[in-house]
C-alpha cells in the first residue's frame, strides 16, 4: 500500500481529543486553515477558566459560516456580543451573516459598530474587508479595496492583517504573489516582536506546490522561533511527509507527539509514520499504547497488521487482522483484505484466505492486482484449475509483465501435473503453459528459470518421457545458470533435475553426452548407486 494513502487513512482519528493548549490553539488552527481541528478545540475548551469566550464564539461562528450554516453562525456571534460587547469581531460576524442574507444595510450598520469600538484599530478594518471578501469578492471588490487602502494608510503600511488578507485573496490564482504578501505580514510583525503563525503556515501551504523547499524552510524558521508550538511542529511534520521526506517527517512527528499540547489521537498518525519509516517495532509499541486506552481503535489494528506483515510475523499479522475484521466500526479497505488473506495463507489456512481474497475482489472489481494474489492462494491450496482461471482473467485484462507470464506458465504446469497422463486435458494444459513461457522467453531470453519451467512443461506434455525439445530447454537453462557459477549451490535442485533428465535423454542418442551429464549429476549426489550403475553400463 502506498505510504501516503496509509497516512490519509489515519486522518479520521485526529479529532477524537483536543490538544491541551487551550482555546488559542483553536484560533491558530482556524487561521492556519484547519477548521475541523479548530472546531474540536474551541468546543472542548469553551468552558475552561482561561478561555476568552467572546473570541471562541467568534471563531465558532466563522466556522459555521464557512460550513454554510448561517443560523448557527449568527447564534455564535450573538453569544459573543452578549458576553463582551467591546470585542468588535462578533459584530463583524453578525454583519457578515446579514450581508450573506442580502441585507447590506444591516451589514454596514454592524460593521460600523465594530469599527467604532476602537477607531484606530486597523486590524478591525481588515476584518470587515475580509467579511466582504468571504461573502462575494467580486460584488464587493470596491468595498474591500477601500477598506484595505484605509487600513494601510492609517497603519502607515504596517498592518500585517492587510497582507494576510491580500495573500488569501491571491492564494488560488497566484500562489507566488500570495506568498510574497504572507512574507510581508511576517516581516511587519517581526518589527513589532511578534510571530505571525498564521502568515507562516499560510505561506507554507500556499507555496508548497510551487517550491516545497522554500515552504519547508519557512516552517523550519517558525519552529526555530517557537520551538514549543504544537501547531508549528505538526505543520512541519506534514510538509515533510507531503514532500516524501518520510524519515524527517517521522522525526518531526516524534517531537510533536512529545509536546504536551499535541492531540492524543495524533499518536495514531505517528504510529503510521513509524511504519512508513520502517520502524516496525516502534510502530507496534505506539499502536499498543494507543490500544491500551482505546481498544476499539481499528486504525491501530491496521497498522499492527502492516508492521507484523513487514516483519514476516504472520501469526501476529493474522491476529491483528482478525481483530480488525471483527471490529464493527472498522472501515475496511482493499489492502486490509490483502494483508489478512496473505497472513492466513502463510499460516496454512488457504480456504480462509481464498474467502477473504474473493471478498476483496468483489468489493474492488477494478483492482486487477488482487487477481494474481488470489491465484497464488488457489495454487497453494491445490485448486489448480481455479489458480489458472483467475490468473488468465488477469492477463486477459491487458496486464502481464514477464513475471506474470512466468507465473501463469507455472500455474498451467501445476494444473497439468494434477491431471492423468495420456489425457487430452493434461496435454492441453501443458501446451497452454508452453504458450505463456515462450511469451516470457521472448521478452527475457537469458533467464534460466524460464527455461527450467519450459523443460518441466515439455516433460509433462510428453508424459514424463525426455525428448529433444525438453533437452534443449534444459541445456538453455544450464547455459544461463553457468554464466554465474557462484550461485550453483543455491540452484542445486535445478542442476540436479537438468543433469539427470539430460543424461536419461542422451542415453539412446549420444552415450558420451549421457555419461557426461550423469557424471555431473554425481558431483552433486555422489552416493546415488543407481546412477553409478547407469554410467558403468554406458561405459562398457
How is the topology of this model organized?
Layout lengths: L2 H7 L13 H9 L3 H10 L8 H14 L3 H14 L5 H12 L3 H14 L4 H14 L5 H14 L5 H11 L4 H16 L6 H11 L4 H14 L4 H13 L3 H13 L8 H10 L3 H14 L4 H13 L3 H12 L8 H13 L3 H14 L6 H11 L3 H13 L5 H16 L6 H20 L4 H14 L6 H15 L9 H15 L4 H14 L4 H11 L1
Helix pairs in contact: 2-3, 2-4, 3-4, 4-5, 4-6, 5-6, 6-7, 6-8, 8-9, 8-10, 10-11, 11-12, 12-13, 13-14, 14-15, 15-16, 16-17, 16-18, 17-18, 18-19, 18-20, 19-20, 20-21, 21-22, 22-23, 23-24, 24-25, 24-26, 25-26, 26-27, 27-28, 28-29, 29-30
Summarize the structure.
The chain is mainly alpha-helical and 540 residues long.
List key phrases describing it:
single chain; mainly alpha
Overview of this structure, please?
It is a single chain. By secondary structure, the protein is an all-alpha fold. Helix content is 72%, strand content 0%. It has 30 helices and no strands. The protein has helices at 3-9, 23-31, 35-44, 53-66, 70-83, 89-100, 104-117, 122-135, 141-154, 160-170, 175-190, 197-207, 212-225, 230-242, 246-258, 267-276, 280-293, 298-310, 314-325, 334-346, 350-363, 370-380, 384-396, 402-417, 424-443, 448-461, 468-482, 492-506, 511-524, 529-539. The radius of gyration is 35 Å and the shape is elongated. It starts with a helix and ends with a helix. Mean pLDDT is 90; it is low at 11-18.
